[in-house]
Each structure stands twice: as structure tokens, then as C-alpha cells.
Write a structure and sequence with these properties.
By secondary structure, the chain is an alpha/beta fold. It is built from 16 helices and 13 strands. The chain folds into two domains: about 160 residues, Aspartate Aminotransferase, domain 1, CATH 3.90.1150.10; about 200 residues, Type I PLP-dependent aspartate aminotransferase-like (Major domain) (Aspartate Aminotransferase, domain 2). The strands form three sheets. Strands 2-8-7-6-5-3-4 form a seven-stranded mixed sheet, sandwiched between helices. The N terminus is likely disordered. One of its GO terms (molecular function) is L-allo-threonine aldolase activity.
Length: about 400
């Protein structure tokens, strides 16, 4: 590392989050750039440049869910092969309402899901506190439950909720056969099936099935527009028309029927038009990136590392290293600041395993398609060099 790099420092009063944002925003080479990393002007310019290709901008703005919002609902329902769909400002709201509707219809407010599913980790116990739902866990393994675990679970549940892919376990998916078997096992127990499909869009390659066929396994499906599709915000719940109508009523009660939502709806339509067709490319190239990382770690003699899954199931996967999360994040930020290359971004203390292990999520999107395997290995060498310098400096 150069003397200039060694001397790189940040004023003590610099906000760490703002520093990270600035570093990754200014980086010239990234594997993916999330919409939240763009400046407001960039977001508005993108929306202005592309909205006219997906919707008639001479039409009136939406009011309480009509117009462009209703059009987004129609297009999404058609993509998923469902009778109807309803737009929500957040997936948290969409899923709570879906599951409370099913609880009323089945007469059972118990939801079977994975303990590392999004509602259990990131929603402040909202299922219970807001919607009166109770959760149980057919398995604690870092994968979705299998058919036997669902079939033999010791107490009744009204709904089986499956997160596809299971993000916290490494964006992992079952095989198509395993998925169909677990759905059948739930049906044998007279339970309905709901897919948390925030990232369902990129699952088609792994399952080798179109979206409509995957979604057909579930009674209801939730999908997000701001993750893989790079939209501003928003989600859709799709399923039977009668349940969707009921969900609209609950959306109003929850305060989710906003006066106007055309920016979010237009950005979602742009995502369906531009990002969705490219997701198979991203998934394929994520496999190239993951393999290059494996090779780079081995070439560098890294004493322990984990790329998980070794062959990614989607365009996202995890990397684990035996170092302090803050030190790894600092190395990533310095690499972006000093070289304009952002291989990794933020690291977190691993929720499983021994102390001192950190994990990060790697996403490969359009920007990552420009990276060759050699580019990945070169960037990794630069990152590991900064880790060595930080550790030697006692940082």
C-alpha cells in the first residue's frame, strides 16, 4: 500500500454512515449499486428519462391507488399468474395483512416460518404486536423446512410462510422438488401457503421455472420492487381476488392507502421493464464472481474464509471472514476511497459461529457484469492488503 494510502484518514467528527455512503457512491467500479446509494438528483433524472417508456405521462396522477398504481397491480398480477394484486408502501405491511386475512379464514392465527425470516428478525415483533399472529418454527437449520418437518410438526398452524430465497441463511433456495414437496405437506395439514417473495424475481434460474409456475405453488405471494428491481419503494401482494379485496380494506385501516404514489409506481414499472429481464445475467455472473473470490482467497493464503453458497442460488451470496466487522468495513471504505473500487461494502458480526467472525452480502447487478474473474481476484488482493495493514496498525 502506498504512503498516501497509509496516511488516509478521516476527520474524527465525520459521520461513519455518511462516509460510507460517499465512498461507495463515488467508487467507479462496484458489483452493484443499490438505488438508495444514488443522489436525489440522479434518482429524479432516471425517473424522468425512463418513465415515459412504461406509462403515459399525460395521464392524470394517481389518487388513492388508481391510475398508474392500478396499472402496476395489473401487470404484476399477470406476471405472477394471480387473479389480482394490491400495492403496498412496504412489504412489512403487505405480509402482516396477508397473514391476518388468512388467519381469519382458516380460524388459526399461527404462522409457521423460519426463525431467521424477515418478520422474526427485522420487524420488531410486528406479527404479534400489531396483527395478533403467533409464530412457530418447523426448523432452525440454515435452510427452509423440508416436507417431513412441516408434515410432522407437533402443533397446528394455519399458514406456512416460505421466504424465497432465505436471505439470512445466504440467499438459499430449496430444489424445485423440495419446494413442491413442502407445499404438498402443508396442504396435507390444511394449511395455506404464503411466499415471502421479496426477491422471488431472481429465483427462476435456480428452479428452471417461470415466475408464474413458481408463484402458482402459493395461495398468496408478496414481491418487492426496491430490491432486485431497483425501484424506489413499494410491494405487491398477489393472490385470489376475494382476499386481495379484503387486503385493500385492511391496507386502508393500517394507513397504507396513500394519496399519491406515482414516483414509486413508475420506478417499479421501470424495474419490471429494464431490470427484470436482466436478472438471469446477474445470477449467472454471480457464480463467476463467487468462484473468483474462492480462488483469490486460496491464492492469498487466507487462513479461513467462507463463500456461501459456493455456487450462488441467486445474484446474491455471503462472504465470511475471521476478522472484526468494523475493521473489514473500514478496509472496504478505504479501498473505495483510495482506488475507486468497491468489492465489498458493509460487514456485520456473524450471527452464528465463534466470536470474531464477520459476514457481508455480495450482490452482482448490471455494474458487476463488467468485472472479469481476474478483476475480482485483483480487487480482493487490494482488499486483503488493506486488512493486513489495518491489523498491523492496530486498527
Amino acid at each position: 500500500m502506498s504512503d498516501e494510502a497509509n496516511d488516509a484518514s478521516t476527520a474524527p467528527d465525520t459521520d461513519p454512515q455518511e462516509r460510507r455512503r460517499a465512498a461507495f457512491h463515488s467508487a467507479k467500479r462496484v458489483l452493484a449499486r443499490h438505488s438508495a446509494q444514488h443522489r436525489i438528483g440522479e434518482q429524479l433524472a432516471h425517473l424522468s428519462a425512463h418513465a415515459g417508456s412504461v406509462y403515459d405521462l399525460d395521464a392524470g396522477a394517481d389518487i388513492y391507488g388508481d391510475g398508474v398504481v392500478a396499472e402496476l397491480e395489473r401487470r404484476t398480477a399477470r406476471l405472477l399468474g394471480k387473479e389480482a394484486a394490491v400495492f403496498f408502501p412496504t412489504g412489512t405491511m403487505a405480509q402482516q395483512i396477508a397473514l391476518r386475512c388468512w388467519a381469519a379464514r382458516t380460524g388459526n392465527n399461527t404462522v409457521a416460518l423460519h426463525p431467521r425470516a424477515h418478520p422474526e428478525l427485522h420487524e420488531r415483533n410486528a406479527f404479534h404486536e400489531v396483527s395478533g399472529l403467533r409464530t412457530v418454527h418447523p426448523t432452525g437449520e440454515p435452510r427452509l423446512p423440508n416436507a417431513d418437518e412441516v408434515r410432522d410438526f407437533e402443533e397446528p398452524f394455519g399458514t406456512l410462510m416460505l421466504e424465497l430465497p432465505l436471505r439470512e441463511a445466504g440467499f438459499v433456495l430449496p430444489s424445485w422438488e423440495e419446494l413442491t414437496e413442502v407445499v404438498e405437506a402443508a396442504r396435507e395439514r390444511d394449511a395455506v401457503v404464503h411466499f415471502d417473495g421479496a426477491r422471488l424475481w431472481e429465483c427462476t434460474g435456480h428452479f428452471e421455472r417461470p415466475l408464474e409456475e413458481i408463484a402458482a405453488l402459493a395461495d398468496t405471494v408478496y414481491v418487492s420492487f426496491y430490491k432486485s428491481l431497483e425501484g424506489m419503494s413499494g410491494a405487491v401482494l398477489a393472490g385470489p381476488a376475494t382476499l386481495v379485496d379484503e387486503a385493500r380494506t385492511w391496507r386502508h385501516r393500517y394507513g397504507g392507502t396513500l394519496f399519491q404514489q406515482y414516483p414509486a409506481a413508475l420506478s417499479a414499472l421501470i424495474g419490471l421493464e429494464q431490470a427484470l429481464p436482466r436478472l438471469p445475467e446477474y445470477v449467472a455472473h454471480a457464480k463467476v464472481v463467487a468462484q473468483a473470490l474462492e480462488e483469490g482467497f486460496r491464492e492469498a493464503g487466507t487462513p479461513w474464509f467462507r463463500v456461501h453458497p459456493e455456487v450462488p442460488h441467486t445474484h446474491q451470496f455471503q462472504v465470511w471472514l475471521p476478522y472484526d466487522a468494523d475493521a473489514l468495513t473500514e478496509a472496504a471504505v478505504r479501498q473505495a476511497e483510495e482506488s475507486g473500487v468497491a468489492l465489498f461494502q458493509r460487514w456485520f458480526t456473524a450471527p452464528e459461529g465463534p466470536p470474531g467472525v464477520a459476514v457481508t452480502e455480495v450482490t452482482v447487478a448490471s455494474q458487476g457484469l463488467e468485472w472479469s474473474a481476474e478483476d475480482v481476484r485483483e480487487a480482493l488482493a487490494g482488499f486483503l492488503g488493506r486488512i493486513g495493514w489495518l491489523l498491523a496498525a492496530g486498527c
